[in-house]
Amino acid sequence: MTKMKTKKIIAIASAVILAVSSLAGCGGNNKKVEEGNITLTAYDKNVTTSFGNDDVSSEIIKKTGVTLDYNQASGDAKEKLNLMLASNDYPDLILIDRSSGMIDKFISAKALIPLEDLIEEYAPNIKEQYGEYLNRSKSEDGHIYGLPNWYGIDEEPVLAFMIRKDYLSEVAPEEVVNGDRPITQSEFIEYLKAFKKKHPDIDGKTSIPLTMWSENWGSAIGSFKGMFGMKTYAEKDGALQLDFKDENYKPMMKYINQIKREGLLDVEWATNKEQLWKQKLTSGVVFATPEAYWNTGEASTILSESNEDAVYLPYKVVADGVDPSKTTYSSRNPMGWDIVGITSTNPYPERTIEFLDFIASDEGQKLIMSGIDGVNYTVKDGVRTIDEATLDEMNTDISAYSKKTGVRYWTICVKNGDAKDGLPYYLYNAYNSDETTAFAKKTMGDTVWDCSPYEDLTPVGGTVEALNYKKLSDLSLEYSTKLINASSEEEFNTVWDSFMSEAESLDEANVEKIITENYQKKLKLWGMK
Prior knowledge:
By secondary structure, the protein is of the alpha/beta class. It has 3 domains: 38-154 and 334-430, 3-Layer(aba) Sandwich (D-Maltodextrin-Binding Protein, domain 2); 159-328, Periplasmic binding protein-like II (D-Maltodextrin-Binding Protein, domain 2, 3-Layer(aba) Sandwich); 464-525. Helix content is 45%, strand content 13%. Helix 6 packs across helix 15, helix 17 (388-396) packs across helix 18 and helix 20 packs antiparallel against helix 21 (489-505).
């Protein structure tokens, strides 16, 4: 090779290196954010209409320059998400249900990009609004792949003992009926007995002091667990145990068994499906039922047509030795229902995070949840106010109003609770408080607790421990029926001993060890340990 040719090759190579270096310099933090109007493809299983066809989404486009082109929801959401993974064909912006089991699949497929650097550089409102929940959004590898939607503690109560107000007023003092103090463990049994004595039959039908919707067992037993101050797991010295190892679990089951043995529990309690349970409530023969407070609304509406006090109201029953303020009727997960993620094929990640930053801001949340000032509400003396005509329209058909106006329809990065002005982001909540809801906030408001640390701790599927966990869950359900139906205290104790023996044979200790390890990892990841 001649010296001239060698120099020429070196010169060409140098030029190539410089060109590559120049291109590399255009990437990373030096990348210029796309300007002007853009369109992002999007997927949300709840969206069935077009973005930009209502006032709220039109205002979002005006504020951000971003239009969303939704793959409109129809068919099975999980099936759609699996098809996206199989084809590597993703929308730019995606909402994935937390309970679907699909989030980890999208992360494993590298279909979602890490958001923490984008948030740090482009999203001050996300940092301010999400606060501690950003840290809680980290995956095991330390990255944030999605923003929680409907995040923050929802202070609305959930479970209670739903008791007929008119029947309770016949057997209890006024302070109890009005919800001014909780009902004690012994008082509750006294009230059940007094009701049965006063009303052995109602309209020719045998009265039922206490019934349960067994098909919705989580709410039924959850109300009793709330009464005894129990949570998802029993916790001792930082270690978690299955709930039946809680020191209050056996006394709780013994209490329900007492109610059953004294003839105060519906004889069909273990087989009540939804329709039968509702029929019993609406027939007027039921004194009380443990349930989510909104699930008795239909019965209350029907019964109150002939007697305004014939409504089921949420009451707090407190077990002996439990602080009334430490009851645990209302578990709430501040990590929300789903996550909002940016996919790996999104050509505008910076603009997308800026879009989400606006939506997550106080201004953006008021826009998507309350609408537009002067259209959906007005500000009077600094207070957001809904006029009577708008309120009437919302009360008539809130779903139709939402779809027509966009108010609470484009639910992205939704934050539970109040705006900076002290009113709910979803302003309608300030006007939409019926007697039962207001009563629930009064009697059960202090029973809300954060259950997110206990989420997703069970053994990985396909393992021996996962199989044993499933068997232990089934065993607990099976023995719940046996314990409640025991004909005597002696039989109860015999059944309990059998329960504990069978649980031990399923290697419960190793299952609990894995749950505890996952719990401690989570606390460390969240910076809580």
